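Side project, low priority. Logging it here so it doesn't get lost.
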Amino acid sequence: MRIPLAVASLSLLLAATSWAALGESLESVAFDKERLHGDLRSTLGDRFSVHEISAADGTTVREYASPAGLVFAVSWQGPFVPDLAQLLGSYFPEFEAASRSPVRPRRPVTVRTDRLVVEMGGHMRAFRGRAYLPGALPEGVSESDVR
């Protein structure tokens, strides 16, 4: 009886600490704030909202959401690359497959598919990147709005 309860508790804990992943609901931003032990600042606009989490380690994650509450883009900057599997959610396998190519030492990574764009680069202690869903950009929003 203890093992199933422990597994269920662990599953709930892990689910509660997931990122607001691409294509998913904005509801998990509060969990992201807790996971990063950061401060949350939200900016609401007519076309989209930006939820910026600043962590004590210098990492900043921005989550862009449509008026309907769909996360259509994420961006990051800081001393570390965040866990892309969590940020990209169900799009991570697509990113992983598209980014498999010959080794590109010290070069930025750009992945463009019909459904996903990921751009990232930097160097030790200074990484930045962004990912967005071209088909989910709200009307009047361009890729240059994702910073």
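Brief comment: The chain has a mean pLDDT of 83.
Revisit when time allows.
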